[in-house]
Amino acid sequence: MVNSTLVVTLYVNPMTGNDTNTGSRLSPFKSLSRALKVTKIPTIIYLESGTYSAASGEVFPLIIPEGAKVVGNEANKGAEILISGSGEYQSPSFGIQNITLLLVDNASLLGVTVTNPSLKGTGIWIESAAPTLANNTLSNCGREGVFTTGTAKPAILDNIFVQNTASGLVMAGHSQGEVLGNVFQRNRLGIAISDFAAPAIANNKLSENRTAIALSRNAQPVLRENLIAKNTQGGLLINGNAAPDLGNTQDSADNIFRDNSEFDLHNATTQKVISVGNQLNPILVKGLVELLPSNPVAVSTNYSNAPTESPSEKLPAFPQLDGHWAEPFIQALVRMDLTHAFADGSYQPDKPMTRAQYAVLVAIAFNPFPKIPAPDFTDVPKDFWAYSAIQIAASGGFVGGFSDRTFRPDQNVQRLQVIVSLVNGLGLPAVDSDVLELYSDRHTISEYARKAVATATQQKIIVNYPDPKLLAPSRRATRAEVAAMVYQALVAIGRAPAIKSVYVGLHSIS
């Protein structure tokens, strides 16, 4: 039996609301401050368009408490929902600070614009907490857009950091967490990492900053698949005792440094930095840096040149899968001859999957009938390696583009996008969303996707590793996770036998 948990839902409209109202959809509050005063766990607060400032009744800093979810408009990165203001916060790590918002453990802020006009103002402060910050815009802050410290472990996903005076993002203390798919543009520093911070920085675009990424003290970030281009001074600056992970022989970093003015990579320390698989201009590399090529068994994305031998002649196993949790799913796809996008015999299961690779996989796996005319994506020319697969997947309802008519083939696909894609592409009937009680982070599921997630859960399509109860919808999907969910979708439509796994299905519902 599913245990139901009451979710408090509140609405705020700075234009038509009143703080004496009930906070319902038809009787919204005027200020976010008022909604936060009555917040209980769990709570979702929906913000209407407008400016949230002292003039509209806000009292800063705004504190988003544990388990609360503040939602604006994720589709346009909060372009019409502005939270602007500053108040004093006593940081255990850094003393008195002027901040706009404080995000507490497991809080979520989605689809708003945040600015702090104070001279040394910070937009969002995260101290020893693990919140989710996704699809927001951090702009025109007097110092930085986001500051993390203590033992913070946030998920900072698909935000825009633009024109902040000092930095887009600062990570200090022992901060970890993930910084994935963000845009950093026209900041003095795109990302500054200091102290003992060791976050994962992946699939971000950093351009037109003075310096894209600056490391100091004992910072040890992991940098993967970032585009670092057209910065007016340079790309990556390494100071102090900082030691970034820029790839190794088993895991190439695949960062692209391009068109930076003074340097792509400047190692100002006395310790040698190893760079594996990064695209750099050797002339713009300064200091002790050893440049190594990519792993020779890196993934090939040219599936049109895949071997034509029969499935029985293919490699019986990918060499990187021995004992991997997803090995049964991936090997099943190999036996079904569905891994053309990885035709060189490597799969690298813990790497993220791009939207182009995903389109190839679903096009081959499901070979869908056309439901709609395939869009003419402006960034997918006819000579692009995955053009045909993207057309098939799009016309079959498995993938779509963005409002600017782009497909963004090299962008990593998120777990939620995979789930919604499989449900929509297969046309699976919707089920009651009560089944979402299975997930401990169910309140981070976007409203538009709740029915699809419930359907995929009921059909045992969703695969959650390592915690079956943690959906992590905004996290980028690994190739292992995509393989497992695509295989489970084949099981759901009767085209493949079930594979027993503790990471699949409704095992945790009592």
Automatic annotation (TrEMBL):
Q: Where is the signal peptide?
A: none
Q: Which InterPro entries match?
A: Cell_Envelope_Struct_Comp, DUF1565, Para_beta_helix_rpt-2, PbH1, Pectin_lyas_fold, Pectin_lyase_fold/virulence, SLH_dom
What are the residue boundaries of the SLH domain, all occurrences included?
A: 313-372, 373-436, 438-500
PROSITE patterns on file: SLH
Q: Which SUPFAM superfamilies match?
A: Pectin lyase-like
Pfam families to which the protein is assigned, alphabetical:
DUF1565 (PF07602), SLH (PF00395)
* PANTHER family recorded: OUTER MEMBRANE PROTEIN ALPHA-RELATED (PTHR43308), S-LAYER PROTEIN _ PEPTIDOGLYCAN ENDO-BETA-N-ACETYLGLUCOSAMINIDASE (PTHR43308:SF5)
Indicate what this protein is called per its UniProt record. Answer: DUF1565 domain-containing protein
Question: What is the originating organism of this protein?
Answer: Nostoc edaphicum CCNP1411
